Amino acid sequence: MKCQDVSEFVSALYDGEKIPKDAAEHVGICDDCQEQLNAYSALGNELRRLASLEADTPLRPGFWRTVRRAPSTWWRKGFATMKIPRIAFASMFIAILALSGGLVLGRARAGATGPVLILTYKPIANGRSLQCVITTDTNRGTNHCTHITSLSSGSVILAARFVSKDDNRTEVGLRTRFIPRAQHVEGDGEAELRGVPEQVLSFDSGESRQVEISGMGEIALMANYLDHVPTLIYRPDEALDPQANEFRVVTPVLIRDKQVIASMDGTSIWNGTSDAALMLYVPEDGRYLVSATQFDGAVEGNTHLGQIDFTLDGHQYLLLTSMPITRSEHVWIAHEPDFKPSQRMVRASEARDDRPMFLVRNLERLQQPRIPH
To answer: Theoretical Cys-Cys bridge with 88: which of 14, 50, 166, 322, CB 3.0 to 4.6 Å?
Structure first.
């Protein structure tokens, strides 16, 4: 699970409630979630301390009588029935706002101070460069990355982990494996990397090292430092303008009739074909297909930078993303209210009907009876 999936359970845990096993396991190993849990605890202690400081403060004569005669507006009614110190109430109100915005603050890690290490490699000598960004600290949520790259001959899995840092020289733990095309790669590739020994490489900024991958050959791996966490972890050099035939969805928010029905974290980008499409699934509402190519049963929508507006089934929709989506001025949208990920995804064990999800693929692939995740 990711931090944004566990956020609501952290609050429940502080309240003394039981939480799902996978959420409890995540909190047990995640420094950020433990920090949030400690923040809840510290806040509660501080509010109780403030209340104790003013508990014996004498009331002014006539205080309650004066308040009871005040005009009965909703605001004054709120103060008339208040039995906790106002400073504690103000602190609680500010704290509630801060905690309710915790998910947004947790997501806003891009731009945080570094340094971070960018590992650049090419699975094919004359192919596109791929980049893996890891922080040079002990944060287990950001100091490692895993790439799965599909080639005509199979798939390359590369997992990098921060080990140590001394001035500008960093040690990175690396595990790699080549999977022939006939074999299927499950999930995030961790299952295929079990038992693969880790080699520790030492890098200076700008230094390149050759890495041998059994069954495939050597690849060049280069390390560079960046003084901040990039907006897109897997594409730190991403420009604002989308490329031709590129379809990008970053932290999408779907609004229907001025009400948010889905807000998700993450990035999905498809490049190279004109029929790219977004599948956005909302629990109990089905999925929305948004394509740069017209298809049967779809309505037309308008795009402007990171916005798509459209009318569907009598409702006004607005899809917002953190970056411009496509160069196309128009897209086509369809709604499938009965769609269930568990019934349509190839790896059904990883598909959750009770959790929102999105991914970008080509349209034909998304319309298949069974969709590869």
So the answer is: 50
